[in-house]
């Protein structure tokens, strides 16, 4: 994926919404949103995005996949994400596999802290939405007995993801690739301990529906950890650039939107235990530098 490079100022904001504990943390600036404060403290940052489709699920009988939701899932795949040419999916998977190295280096401290939330709890079954080429596998290695289900509509991601899983030391039986959409996950209610998503809500067709699916499949007490690129500040030069590039980005980066307010969507999904959301500006991926990351509690 073609990316402009520049350095941005280092900032992180923290958004906290919790029905039980409506906490607001502040340090320097604060900006009022419709139902939360977004506060900013100093830190350093990163950024990016992209996406595709494939065959099916019957191959994993040990999973709590209901046949009815599996067929619903196939329908959803066709309806929400019409098939793309093989060459496009292959090219996109290849570019994600080859072009993200510097981004992954820059983001690794953030991811390490985020994935720490999975350690020491009963986290044996994790679903990753939009698993792509599997850049997050290395963060699962500290979690005992973990098995990872990776949902992705781009079948060409599977071989890259399998390779990443093995390189990270996961046994092949502990990774299952599921050809499906975040909007229609073919798993039973309350069937996973955690959901992980990185750079995926920019690409799904329906963000709200995807978040509702995450809530549905998470067990009570389960957590959703995320790191997503988002729209830059309203009125900023970066936002203007994003507005101009957004239509092109969707074409070249498999449906990726540059101007989504993903943090707001996560808050509006109203996870039972609320959500802690931080905001980061990262330097390695230019017009995709604004991010949110954090944890939502089911
Ligand atoms: C930018 S890539 C990110 C991949 C990976 N999560 C990462 O951090 O590198 C976006 C991924 O989301 C997948 N995707 C696109 N639409 C999706 C949907 N509706 N549901 C689930 N995954 C989707 C794409 O196929 C692609 O693998």
The CATH architecture would be 3-Layer(aba) Sandwich
Count of DSSP-assigned helices: 7
Assign the CATH topology: Rossmann fold
**Strands in their spatial order, largest beta sheet:** 2-3-1-9-10-8-7-4-5-6
What best-fitting shape do the alpha-carbon axes yield?
Answer: globular
Compute the CA-based radius of gyration. Answer: 18 Å
What is the CATH H-level superfamily? Vaccinia Virus protein VP39
Measured by DSSP, the beta-strand proportion falls in 15-25%
What is the residue-mean pLDDT, rounded to a whole number?
A: 79
Low-confidence stretches: 1-71
Q: What order do the helices and strands follow? A: EEEHHHEEHEEHEHHEE
Number of separate domains: 1
User: What's the main sheet like?
Assistant: 10 strands, mixed
For the secondary structure, the number of strands is: 10
User: What structural category characterises the helix and strand content?
Assistant: alpha/beta
CATH class descriptor name: Alpha Beta
Percent of residues in helices comes to 25-40%
Bound molecules: S-adenosylmethionine
How many angstroms does the end-to-end distance come to?
35 Å
Protein name: 24-methylenesterol C-methyltransferase 2
Organism: Cardamine amara subsp. amara
Pfam family, one: Methyltransf_11
Can you characterise this structure?
This protein is α/β, with parallel strands linked by helices. Helices cover 30% and strands 21% of the residues. It has one domain (11-297): 3-Layer(aba) Sandwich (Rossmann fold), CATH 3.40.50. It has a ten-stranded mixed sheet with strand order 2-3-1-9-10-8-7-4-5-6, sandwiched between helices. Strand 7, helix 5 and strand 8 (218-229) form a beta-alpha-beta unit. It is globular. It starts with 10 loop residues before the first strand and ends with a strand. Bound molecules: S-adenosylmethionine. S-adenosylmethionine binds at residues 49-52, 81, 96, 129-132, 135, 151-154, 157, 181-183, 198-200, 203-205, 255.
């Amino acid at each position: 994926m073609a990316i402009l490079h520049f350095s941005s100022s280092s900032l992180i904001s923290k958004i906290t919404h919790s029905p039980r504990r409506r906490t607001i943390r502040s340090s320097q600036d604060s900006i009022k949103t419709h139902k939360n404060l977004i506060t900013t403290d100093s830190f350093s940052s990163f950024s990016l995005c992209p996406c595709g489709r494939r065959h099916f699920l019957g191959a994993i009988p040990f999973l709590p996949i209901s046949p009815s939701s599996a067929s619903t899932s196939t329908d959803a795949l066709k309806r929400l994400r019409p098939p793309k040419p093989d060459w496009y999916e292959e090219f996109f998977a290849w570019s994600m596999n080859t072009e993200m190295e510097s981004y992954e280096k820059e983001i690794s401290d953030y991811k390490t802290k985020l994935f720490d939330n999975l350690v020491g709890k009963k986290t044996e079954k994790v679903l990753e939405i939009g698993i792509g080429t599997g850049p997050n596998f290395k963060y699962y290695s500290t979690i005992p007995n973990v098995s990872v289900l990776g949902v992705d509509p781009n079948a060409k991601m599977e071989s890259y993801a399998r390779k990443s899983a093995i390189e990270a030391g996961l046994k092949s039986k502990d990774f299952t690739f599921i050809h499906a959409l975040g909007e229609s996950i073919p798993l039973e209610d309350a069937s996973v301990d955690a959901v992980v998503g990185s750079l995926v809500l920019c690409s799904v067709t329906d963000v709200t529906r995807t978040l509702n699916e995450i809530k549905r499949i998470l067990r009570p007490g389960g957590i959703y950890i995320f790191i997503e690129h988002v729209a830059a500040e309203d009125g900023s030069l970066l936002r203007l650039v994003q507005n101009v590039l957004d239509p092109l980005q969707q074409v070249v980066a498999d449906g990726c939107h540059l101007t989504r307010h993903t943090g707001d969507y996560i808050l509006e999904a109203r996870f039972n235990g609320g959500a802690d959301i931080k905001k980061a500006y990262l330097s390695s991926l230019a017009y995709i530098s604004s991010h949110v990351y954090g944890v939502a509690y089911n």
